[in-house]
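Review form for a predicted model. The reviewer records the input and the model, then writes brief findings.
Reviewer: anonymous (R2)
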Amino acid sequence: MDTLFKNLFETMPVLYIRIFFFCLMPIGSFILYHGIKILRKAFNGKVMLEMPYLQQTGEFTILKRGIYSIWQKGEMFRKTPLDQFSTHIYEKATQQEINLSNSLMSPRSNDFSTGRMEIYTFSATPSIYELRLQDGSSVLSVQIFISKLVPLPSVDLSKYFIQVRESQSQLFTLLGIPIVLVGAFGVIGGFVLGLLADQVFK
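Model under review:
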């Protein structure tokens, strides 16, 4: 296969090779756009609820079946109280508890003063739900141990919030990363190889 491509490039005029690589740029841009769009949905889903931590309970309405996520939001460079509460969501009418899945990638976002981090994801159907913060922990024991080793001041609980956001399958988020990389390679690689085609394939 390598020999086939090598012979192909050797028999093609350099101009055609340059055009081929430059054509990778719009293709790469298209792929990159959709990859970024996938990742943006994981970070910037519509806020269904933003509840002050001290409030302990909150209510929100879901209008369409889908994947949703729970985020913590607070001051940057502060130790959050994830080891001091467990998060639960119940359908209000039936009081049936919704199964929460730990966030595999724990996406993060910040504006240099306030930061957000995804904690859980869950699937839900249209209904009214209650979010409750109860005794327990939202992190593993090894994470608690590591957090105690980090000398950070505790977050101001009056400025600490729990959010529920629209989200997507964690598999889509994982796929978004290689899609972005492939798209970026198409744009940058096509441009560079197009410029250097006469030197590389002369």
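Findings: The radius of gyration is 24 Å.
Further findings: The CA atoms of residues 25 and 110 lie 31 Å apart.
Recommendation: see findings above.
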